């Protein structure tokens, strides 16, 4: 079952009609970012004769960024770096590492050999499955990745990431959690909501 879902309307094969229980909405009312427990009830979209139905993931509560589900998550306020994630994504670039000061530590996201990586001191963790500036054979379309959100979702005092990605045949968002990290790593990929590319 998925660990992250984006609100919106999708073909039936790109979002679950019955996502199950245990979901939280990540949103940011005036008092800051928070996880709110929700009952996620997608709606069926009938597209007409001969067309397969679609699925609409509702955008409630107001201002929801994504829906997340993972063992150990609880409702309540979520701490984040001092960045305005409501203003849009922050692109990963090889020439300009992205600084994420959090809880007295200086996290950074850089790009090496087309792969985005999370760094803290001497530890480096590749963000699995993502690339920046790569193209498919015969295409000029370059892949990209950007930070959608960062903060302590699982409340273990370490940084978690939501990363948007885009390539020729795939786009969407991936959830990386510190609580899913392998030994010596900073985060591990909990799951993605992948959509068909152009």
Task: Give a description of the structure.
With 198 residues, the chain is an all-beta fold. It has one domain (4-196). Helices cover 0% and strands 44% of the residues. The chain is built from no helices and 17 strands. It has strands spanning 4-5, 8-11, 23-27, 34-38, 43-45, 54-57, 64-68, 76-77, 90-91, 98-102, 105-112, 115-120, 123-126, 144-151, 160-166, 170-177, 188-196. Strands 1-7-3-4-8 form a 5-stranded antiparallel β-sheet, with no helix packed on it. A 5-stranded antiparallel β-sheet has the order 9-14-15-16-17, with no helix packed on it. A 4-stranded antiparallel β-sheet has the order 10-11-12-13, with no helix packed on it. A hairpin with a 2-residue loop joins β12 (115-120) and β13. It is globular.
Tell me briefly what this model is:
With 198 residues, this protein is an all-beta fold. It has one domain (4-196).
**What does the largest sheet look like?**
5 strands, antiparallel
Please give the domain count.
Answer: 1
Summing up helix and strand content along with how strands pair, one would put the structural category as mainly beta
| Amino- and carboxy-terminal Cα gap | 25 Å
What's the overall average pLDDT, rounded? 90
User: What overall form do the CA principal axes indicate?
Assistant: globular
**Multimerization state:** single chain
Q: Let me know the number of strands.
A: 17
Strand order in the largest sheet? 1-7-3-4-8
- Our Rg estimate from Cα atoms comes to 17 Å
Segments where pLDDT lies below 50 for 5+ residues? none
InterPro entries: Integrin_alpha_N
Protein name: VCBS repeat-containing protein
């Amino acid at each position: 079952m998925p660990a992250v879902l984006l609100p919106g309307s999708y073909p039936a094969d790109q979002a679950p009609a019955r996502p199950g229980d245990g979901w939280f909405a990540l949103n940011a009312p005036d008092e800051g970012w928070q996880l709110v427990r929700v009952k996620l009830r997608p709606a069926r979209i009938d597209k007409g004769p001969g067309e397969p139905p679609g699925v609409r993931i509702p955008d409630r509560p107001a201002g929801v960024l994504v829906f997340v589900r993972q063992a150990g998550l609880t409702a309540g306020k979520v701490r984040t770096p001092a960045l305005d994630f409501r203003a849009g994504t922050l692109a990963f670039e090889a020439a300009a590492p992205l600084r994420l000061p959090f809880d007295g530590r200086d996290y950074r996201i850089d790009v090496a050999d087309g792969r985005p990586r999370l760094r803290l001191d001497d530890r480096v963790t590749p963000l699995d499955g993502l690339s920046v500036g790569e193209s498919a054979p015969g295409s000029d379309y370059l892949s990209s990745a950007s930070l959608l959100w960062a903060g302590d979702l699982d409340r273990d005092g370490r940084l978690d990431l939501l990363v948007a990605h885009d390539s020729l045949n795939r786009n969407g968002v991936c959830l990386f959690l510190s609580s899913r990290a392998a030994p010596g790593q900073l985060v591990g990929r909990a799951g993605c909501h992948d959509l068909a590319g152009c």
